[in-house]
C-alpha cells in the first residue's frame, strides 16, 4: 500500500506541472485517479513472470573403468559321469537329485553304479550313454549280453524262461576249435608275407621277433600294408600287444578282402577295449560296426590280444581271444589280399608289436 500512495503523490505532482492536461473539474480528477488506482491494483495482483531457462539434458559420459555386461558362459563339454546321470534320470519314471546317483566305475564304453538301494549298468551306444539295467533284481541275459559286461559286474542273468544262468568266461569258440592245425603260422622272424610299410608318418619294421608298427604323430588316418596273393574264405588270427603308451581309440588290426591296396575291409581293436569293422572303397568310409566295447578285449598299454577274422562268402565273423564278437554280412569284394593296419588318434610314437600270425585256408 505504501507504493500506492507514492504513485498518487506522483500523479498529483504531474497534474500540477502539466496544467493543460489537468481535467477541468474535481470529478474528472477523481475519475483519473480512480483509473490509475485500478490499473495499479490490477498490476499488483498479477502473478510475477518468472523466466525459467530451458532444461539441459546432461551429456552421459560412460565410466571407462566400468565393466562390460557379463556374458552368459558357454557350457563346457559334458563328462561321461554327467551324461550317465542324465541318462539315469531319463530311464527313471520320476527324476531324482543327481547327487544321489553314484557312478562307481567306467571302463571304456561300459559303466556301473548305484542309487537309493539299487544298482545300474550302462553302456555307450553310438556315442550316447544308455542305462541297460537298473534295479535290485537279476537282469535278463538277452538285455546284457550284447554289451559284454564283465562277469564281476553281472555274475548271473535270467534266461527267457526266468531260470538263472551263471555267467562265465566262454571257452574258445567251437568253430575255431574245429579248424584243426593252421595252414601256416608266422612267428615274425622275417618279412615273408608282410609288406613293410614306410610313409611320412608310419613305419613297419622287424625287431626282436615282432613286426613293429609305429605311428610318429597321433591324429592321422589308418594306414596299412597288404600281402601278395588274393584269398577268398579263410580264418586269420594275429597276436599283438600295445606299446607302453596308448589311449582312447589308438588302434591296430587287419585289412582283408582288399582287391587292391586302396580298398578293403578293416577290422580293428582300440586301446580302450573297443572294436570296429568298416569298408574303405578308396574314397569313402562305410561303417559296418561302429566302435563298440567288449569285455573280451584286454584294454590299456602293454596288453596282448588275439584278433581274428573269418570269412565265408558274404558272411564275416569277428573274434577276440578266440571268442566270437559278432557276425556281419559284407556285400563287396568277394576276394582279395590281407594285411596289417595301424592308426593313432591320441598318442605320438604309438607302437604295436605283432608277435605272430596264423592262417587257415577254408
Structural features, described:
The protein folds into 3 domains: 2-43, no CATH class; 80-166, no CATH class; 174-361, Exo-inulinase, domain 1 (Jelly Rolls, Sandwich). Helices cover 15% and strands 37% of the residues. The chain has helices spanning 2-17, 26-45, 80-91, 141-144, 174-177; strands at residues 102-107, 110-115, 118-125, 128-135, 156-158, 164-166, 184-186, 202-207, 210-215, 223-226, 234-242, 251-258, 264-270, 274-280, 285-293, 304-312, 315-320, 323-329, 337-343, 350-361. Strands 7, 8, 9, 11, 16, 17, 18 and 20 form an 8-stranded antiparallel sheet that branches. The radius of gyration is 47 Å and the shape is globular.
Features of the shown structure:
Jelly Rolls; 3 domains; alpha+beta
Q: Structural class, please? A: alpha+beta
Number of domains: 3
Mean pLDDT: 82
State the oligomer.
single chain
Number of strands: 20
- What order do the SSEs take from the amino end to the carboxyl end, as H and E? HHHEEEEHEEHEEEEEEEEEEEEEE
What's the number of helices?
5
Main β-sheet: number of strands, strand sense, barrel status? 8 strands, antiparallel
Helical content class? 10-25%
Q: How many angstroms does the end-to-end distance come to?
A: 137 Å
Q: Return the CATH architecture of the largest domain.
A: Sandwich
What CATH calls the topology of the largest domain is Jelly Rolls
Percentage of β-strand residues: 35-45%
Which class of the largest domain in CATH terms?
Mainly Beta
What would the principal axes of the Cα set say about the shape?
A: globular
Poorly predicted parts: 11-66
